Amino acid sequence: MTSQHGYGAVLRVREFRFVFAAHVLSLLGAVVSHVALPVLVYAQTASPLMSALTFGLGFMPQALGGALLAPVAERLRARPVLIGCDLVCAVSVAGMAVPGMPLAALLVLRAVTAFVQPLFGGVRAAGLGEFLKGDAFVLGRSLIRISAQGAQIAGFAATGLLLVVLPPRGALLTTVAGFLASATLLRVGTADRPAAVRDPAADGARTGAGGGGRGGIRAVGTRARGSVAPGTRALFADRRIRALILLNWLPPAFLVVPEGLAAPYSEEIGAGPAGVGLLLAAMPVGGVAAELAAGALLKPPARERLVLPLACCLLLPFLLFAWRPGLPLALAGLLLAGSGIAYTLGLDRWFFDAVPEELRARAMTVMTAGLMTVQGVGMAAGGAAAEFMAPHWAIVAAGAAGTVCVTAAVHAVYAARAPRPAPAATIAPAVRDLPAATPAPPAPSEPPAPHAPPAPPAPAVPAVPDTDRRESAEGPVPETPMGDM
User: Fold this and answer.
1) How far apart (Å, rounded) are the C-alpha atoms in residues 451 and 437?
2) Shortest CA distance to 284 belongs to which of 348, 347, 340?
C-alpha cells in the first residue's frame, strides 16, 4: 500500500510494477494482432469487407463478454482469472497463426480474444484497489491508460514496420509471446487474494443487511425466492453510480469520431496519408500529456474539481472544424480535445468510492465493456453521418451533440452528489399551523409549589367526547406529544 502522491510512489509498489509490465506486454500483443490479422485476412480473401469485419471483431464481442462474464469477476479469485484470460488469448492467437486455418475459424478465434478482454480489464482495475489506496489507485489507473494511449501512438506504426520483415503469421507469434509473458508476470508478481464474493447466499444476506460501500449501493437485493439479484442491475439502480458510468462512457463515444474520419478528412484538406497518421496521433498525445501533468502537478482535490468542467468542455474544440481548418489548426484542435481526457483522473476516484467493494470487479468489467462498445458505436455513427455530409461537418455534429449529451450527464452527476433533504415528519396541517403553546397550569394531581397557597379544587368540567376534542375545522389532529413536534 501507499499513501504518498505522485507516479513515482505508485511505481515503487512492487505488485503494481508486475501488473503494469504485464499490461504493457499483453497490450503490445493486442496491438500487433489488431494490425496483423486484418492483413492476413485481406491477403487470403482480397475483400475489404472481411478485413474490416476482422478489425471490428476486436471490439464488438466485448459488450457480450462484459454482460456474461461480469459475475465471474466477483465470484473467482483475481489472479487465476487474469492468468486464464491471458492464456485464452495466447491459445486463440496461436490458432490464428496455424497455416491453412479456415477464415471462419480465424474470425471465431478473433471474437474469443475480444470476448474475454472486459473481464481481464475489469478484474485488473478492481485488483489495483487491493494494494493501491486513495490517490495511488487513481494514479495507477492513469498509468494504465497512458500506456494504452502510448500503444496507440507508437504501436500501430511499429507493427507496420514489423510486417515489413515478418509475414502476418510470424507477427502473430510475437502476440502469443506477449500474452504468455504477461501471464508469467502475473503468476510470479501478484498475490493470490480471495474472491470478492465467495458465497452468493451469504453475500446476499450481508448486502441486504446494509453491507454496501461508501456512498454507493446499500444492498444488492434479493429475489422473492431468496437468490441474489443480478449485481449489474443493482449497479444501474443506484443513481450516483449510473451517472458516473454515463460520464465515463459518453465523452469517449464522441471523441473517436475524428479518428474514424481521419482518412476522409485528410483527403478533404489535401493532407495525404501522412496527415492521416498525424490526425490519429493528435488526441492520444494530448491525452498522455494532460494526464501526466494533472497526475504529477495537481493534488487530488484539484483534480476532482476539474472533473465536471473538463467533461463539459472537452468536445468543444470539434466546433472549430466548421471552418474546415488546415492540418496545423486541425491538429491543435484535436490535441486540445484530447487533453480534456484528464477529467477521468478525478472521476476514477469518485467511481471507486461509490461502488461497494464486493461489486467493484463487476462494475469495472461492465464499465470496460461499455467503454469499448460505445467507442465502436460512435465511430460507426460518425462514418454513417459522413455518408450524408462532408467529414468536417460530421465532426462538428459530433462536437455539438456530444457536448449536449455530456452536459446532461454532468447534470446527472451533480444531482446524484447533492445531499438529499431529510424527510419531514408527517404532521397534520392543523397541528403544523397551531400557534406556539403557552405553559399549561399544573395538573390537579400535582403538589402545589411551596411558595403558593393550596390551589382551590378545579370546577367540574362536563365530559367531552374524545372525537370532538381531537377534531378541528381542518380535520382530525393526531395525538402527537409536543416534544415530538
Assistant:
1) 25
2) 340
Q: What is the pTM of this model?
A: 0.66
Q: Tens digit of pLDDT for each residue in 222-246?
A: 333 333 345 677 788 888 999 999 9
Distance CA 179, CA 23 (A): 9
Reduced 3-state DSSP string for the chain: CCCCCCHHHHHCCHHHHHHHHHHHHHHHHHHHHHHHHHHHHHHHHCCHHHHHHHHHCCCCHHHHHHHHHHHHHHHCCHHHHHHHHHHHHHHHHHHHCCCCCCHHHHHHHHHHHHHHHHHHHHHHHHHHHHHCCCHHHHHHHHHHHHHHHHHHHHHHHHHHHHHHHCCHHHHHHHHHHHHHHHHHHHHHHCCCCCCCCCCHHHHHHHHHCCCCCCCCCCCCCECCCCCECCHHHHHHHCHHHHHHHHHHHHHHHHHCHHHHCHHHHHHHCCCHHHHHHHHHHHHHHHHHHHHHHHHHHCCHHHHHHHHHHHHHHCCHHHHHHHHCCCHHHHHHHHHHHHHHHHHHHHHHHHHHHHCCHHHHHHHHHHHHHHHHHHHHHHHHHHHHHCCCCCHHHHHHHHHHHHHHHHHHHHHHHHHHHCCCCCCCCCCCHHHHCCCCCCCCCCCCCCCCCCCCCCCCCCCCCCCCCHHHHCEECCEECCCCCHHHC
Residue-wise pLDDT tens digits, 444-464: 444 444 444 555 554 444 444
